[in-house]
Design a protein that fits this description.
12 helices, single chain, 9-stranded mixed sheet, Aminopeptidase, Peptidoglycan bridge formation protein FemAB, 2 domains, acyltransferase, cell shape, aminoacyltransferase activity
Length: 381
């Protein structure tokens, strides 16, 4: 049974570097991005004091009280295949209780279901289908089901996928696998080629990538000095699409913090047409997992397809870096053709990837009265 201790950010970083990948939200750098939260780095160690699991815990204080929500976004990084999850989670709960936590929120990085692009397209076309869950999945994960069952047994409460808390991470995401089953062996995985990735996309995506190239769209990787140009376009996008943009300083901190953990962990990508910035994105890679994190596009010159061009450049870069998955992050679970959110999934489905459902976020109330007050506070917000 592993024991728990506090570690330094450097120890945390060194341990994560030994793993194939982990969520960027569980890296030491992310603690600096979320500076309004108090951060703590924890490790599970074996009987020889070797680290076998780790967590970034972010403590968010309740208004006017010295009590906290302990939040582990897309974590902790532990052995989720175990049949004894309590041996890992119980020591962590005892620790955060001593730190003044009234509740713990975790996000197990465990997949529960997957759907193919073809299944999603059929679902959108079917007027009887409103939600992804109405479509029988391509794959149900036995390991994911085991985690969900254990969390229920241990008293954890699954949170709604809609999420009310600002910190909440998406339960449904869209991913493009960058590996495929080898033609020579059914058990072996081999990297995609650029040609096979393109072949997996729908006709519209392939046409748009080709059009961007023909129109002379140039995609490049920027530096910290290009964050201002990215942010200007992002603010323009926010005004057009009616969402509240983050300030430039947030992205400057994110760029410096993640790249301090490892050079090129976060890259800013810029697509230009005849000198005009038509699309810009931020991409994050931790080991073999690459994420499209933020995006922006110009209302002018949409016909040159800068957004497709920059996505294709990021995919090729992830493939060249040895990543096994390109993650386009959150989608809603709607397949209702009349829902305004369906356009997002339709754009991502064009890449030919798959919709992936994770176990979602789970709360464990420690002080039930405070937890109930916290839920009322969130509902009123």
């Amino acid at each position: 049974m592993p024991s728990l201790r506090v570690i330094s950010p450097d120890e945390h970083r060194d341990y994560l570097a030994t793993l194939p990948s982990t969520s960027f939200l569980q890296t030491p750098g992310w603690a600096k991005v979320k500076a309004e939260w108090r951060a703590e780095h924890l490790a599970w160690v074996d009987d020889q004091d070797r680290i076998v699991g780790a967590a970034l815990v972010l403590y968010r204080q309740l208004p006017k009280l010295k009590r906290y929500l302990a939040y582990l976004p897309e974590g902790p990084v532990i052995d989720w295949s175990t049949d004894r999850l309590g041996d890992w989670l119980d020591p962590m709960v005892r620790h955060v209780r001593k730190q003044g936590a009234f509740a713990v929120r975790i996000g197990p990085p465990v997949v529960t279901r997957r759907w193919s692009a073809a299944q999603i397209k059929e679902g959108i076309a079917d007027p009887e289908v409103r939600r992804l869950g109405q479509v029988p999945p391509l794959d149900r994960s036995a390991a994911g089901a085991r985690v969900v069952a254990q969390l229920h047994e241990l008293g954890w409460r699954q949170q709604s996928a809609e999420g009310g808390f600002a910190a909440g991470q998406p339960q449904f995401v869209y991913q493009v696998p960058l590996v495929r089953v080898s033609t020579s062996s059914t058990a072996e995985l081999e990297p995609h080629t650029e040609e096979s990735l393109l072949k997996g996309m729908n006709q519209l995506w392939r046409r748009n990538i080709k059009k961007a190239d023909k129109e002379g769209v140039e995609v490049s990787v920027g530096t910290a000095s290009d964050l201002k140009a990215f942010h200007d376009l992002y603010v323009h996008t926010a005004e057009r699409d009616h969402f509240t943009p983050r300030p430039l300083r947030y992205f400057e901190v994110m760029y410096d913090a993640l790249n301090a953990d490892e050079p090129d962990r976060l890259k800013v990508w810029l697509a230009r047409h005849q000198g005009d910035l038509v699309a810009a994105t931020l991409a994050v890679r931790v080991g073999r997992h690459s994420w499209y994190s933020y995006g922006a596009s110009s209302t002018e010159k949409r016909e040159v397809r800068g957004s497709n061009a920059v996505q294709w450049a990021m995919m090729r870069d992830a493939l060249a870096a040895g990543a096994t998955v390109y993650d386009l992050r959150g989608i809603t679970d709607t397949l209702d053709a009349d829902d305004s959110h369906v356009g997002l999934i339709q754009f991502k489905v064009g890449t030919g990837g798959e919709a992936v459902e994770y176990a979602g976020e789970w709360d464990l109330p420690i002080n039930r009265a405070l937890y109930k007050a916290f839920q009322i506070y969130l509902a009123r917000r």
